[in-house]
């Protein structure tokens, strides 16, 4: 005879709301200055002496989807003051603070080979003022 029909309001399937959070939003740090925020996202790296790696090679290596994807905000390659040879070290600024820990894999440092050249990475540690 009459079939039991259920209205959408009384159906057993729950309605799922879409999140309104922005997955691309910048991480929030309570009352931290901008510099401290950036230091959380930094890795320091060094090259084997005489075998530097270009910024673009570093970007390409870490950008690969099978590696870490679009995670780097900036790469800075540097030399010591008054040193006229090839760059010896640099820093990578990541888009989120979790990336340096993921790349180091819970270790103090990590070794990568990019185009046959060695890149050693470790967590960035700001130098303390030595003049006091």
Labels describing this entry:
3 helices, 132 residues, alpha+beta, single chain, five-stranded antiparallel sheet
Task: Provide an overview of this structure.
Strands 2-3-1-5-4 form a 5-stranded antiparallel sheet. The radius of gyration is 23 Å and the shape is elongated. The longest helix has 9 residues, at 55-63. The model is unreliable at 5-11 (pLDDT under 50). It is built from 3 helices and 5 strands; from the N terminus they run αβαββαββ. It has 132 residues and is α+β, with helices and mostly antiparallel strands.
Write a concise synopsis of the structure shown.
By secondary structure, the protein is α+β, with helices and mostly antiparallel strands. It has 3 helices and 5 strands. The chain is 17% helix and 24% strand.
What is the tally of helical segments?
3
Name the helix and strand elements from N-terminus to C-terminus, one letter apiece.
HEHEEHEE
Helical amount among residues, as a percent range? 10-25%
**Portion in beta strands:** 15-25%
Structural class: alpha+beta
Low-confidence stretches: 5-11
What's the end-to-end separation, in Å? 92 Å
User: Which outline best applies?
Assistant: elongated
For the sheet with most strands, the description reads:
5 strands, antiparallel
| Gyration radius, rounded | 23 Å
* Mean pLDDT level: 78
Number of beta strands: 5
- Placed side by side, the strands forming the largest sheet appear as 2-3-1-5-4
Fold topology:
Elements lengths: L33 H6 L2 E6 L7 H9 L8 E7 L10 E6 L3 H7 L4 E6 L2 E7 L9
Antiparallel strand pairs: 1-3, 1-5, 2-3, 4-5
